[in-house]
Amino acid sequence: MRRFLLTGLMASTLLINSTFAHATEPSPLIVATEQIALFENDSILPPIHPWSGASEALLLSAEQPWATPFEQQGYVSSPNYHDTMEWLDKLVDSSDVLQKISIGKSPQGRDIWMIIASQDGESTAQALSDNGKATVLVQAGIHSGEIDGKDAGMMLLRDISHSSKRELLENVNLLFIPIFSVDAHERSSQFNRVNQRGPVNMGWRTTANNLNLNRDYAKADALEMQHLIRAINIWQPDLYIDIHVTDGIDYQYDVTFGYNVAQGYSPSIFTWLESIYRPAVEHALTEQGHIPGQLVFANDNTDMTKGLSLWNPSPRFSNGYGDARHLPTILIENHSLKPYKQRVLGTYVMLEQTLKTVAKNSTKLKSAINEDKYRNPSKLTISWQSETLAEGRDFKGIDYHIEQSPISGGKVVRWTGEPRLYKNLPIVANTKADITVTRPVAYYIPPQWSDVIERLSLHGIRMTRLKKPRTITAQQYQFSDPLFSSADYEGHQTVTAATSIHRINTTLPAGTVRIQTDQPLGDLAMLLLEPQAEDSLFYWGMFNTIFTRTEYIENYAVEPLAAKMLLENPALQAEFDLALKDQAFANDSKARLRWFYQRSPYYDNEYMKYPVLRAAK
Question: For this UniProt entry, which residues form the secretion signal (predicted)?
Answer without folding.
Answer: 1-23
